[in-house]
Design goal:
Helix content is about 70%, strand content about 0%. The termini are far apart. By secondary structure, it is mainly alpha-helical.
Length: about 100
């Protein structure tokens, strides 16, 4: 190992890794939100051919975004109901418009 470089312990890397994972997740959710907004505004009720397909795409993106949110483990000091958490994840993964 070159001199002048510290060898960080695993414990000191964990907060950084957690922060990066949270940041990536936040950006992914923002991108889902943007795509949903674009499709929703494009799904004009006056266009009877495109509107149903765009609505299905919006519904699917919303289900995918919810699944992504469900994959995040809540950061809390309180008790987490794992059954509820896993149930919510399974429900969002199974959602089909």
């Amino acid at each position: 190992m070159p001199t002048g470089f510290a060898n960080p312990s695993l414990a000191s890397c964990q907060p950084v890794a957690l922060h990066l994972a949270e940041e990536i997740s936040h950006r992914v959710i923002e991108e889902y939100t943007e795509a949903i907004a674009i499709l929703s505004s494009a799904a004009s009720p006056t266009d009877v051919t495109a509107e149903p397909a765009l609505r299905r795409a919006v519904d699917r993106l919303q289900a995918m975004a919810e699944a992504h949110r469900s994959l995040l483990v809540p950061i809390t000091e309180e008790y987490i109901d794992l059954g509820h958490h896993v149930g919510k994840l399974c429900s969002s993964l199974c959602a089909r418009p």
